[in-house]
Amino acid sequence: MGRIIRWIVVGLGVVLLAASVALWMRPGGLNRATGRDGSFVVPGGVAVGGSFVLVDGSGRTVTEASWPGRWMLIYFGYTFCPDVCPTELQTMAAALDALGPLAARVVPLFITIDPERDTPAQMGEYVKLFDERLIGLSGTPQQIAAVARAYRVYYARVTPKDSTAYLMDHSSFMYLMGPDGTLRMLFRPDMSAWDLAKAIRSCLSAAS
After folding, report:
1. pLDDT tens digit string along 28-53?
2. Which CATH number fits the domain that encloses residue 96?
3. Predicted TM-score of the model (pTM)
4. Spatial separation of the C-alpha atoms in residues 177 and 183, rounded to whole Å
5. Which domain, by its residues, includes 69?
6. What are the DSSP E strand ranges found in the chain?
């Protein structure tokens, strides 16, 4: 059963990736050559996001409703990640700086996909290395699996050859969720902090 669920999540991740490529390549779409940013809107009918129950660095249980009236900027990764996760957290922190006072309307969340190693306390300490505003969230393997399914996140444990320590293979999108809990934008991992801030500012301004 676990293998079936894993492949369902992989398949949904492929759908999202295919949608992003289609939007990226189509005439008039989001194209680097035109100077547009690397964000895109998920096609209608593809549900992303939902309720979750997780634990923050102080041991407090939080849900998607713990920050009423605020937007959520969410990234999934893990503290042992050697490359993309630290880069994306740095981008997230720099984007918050670029937003200035508007950043107070956004809750930046880093959710682990490696709950066996990433305790709530470790997540809380790790995110502060990047920005005091970042909130690290962990939970039981079941809680993490549930939120990963809701956000269509692919993740799997992999052990490199000749190594006893494992890594986590995972999708690397950043999610901007509106105060109503709906997905407003999905961002690729190669976005600059400036473009990320510009896209978020656009969403916040449109909602004002």
Report:
1. 333 332 234 556 556 666 789 999 99
2. 3.40.30.10
3. 0.81
4. 5
5. 2-207
6. 39-40, 53-55, 61-63, 71-77, 106-112, 135-137, 155-158, 167-170, 174-177, 183-187
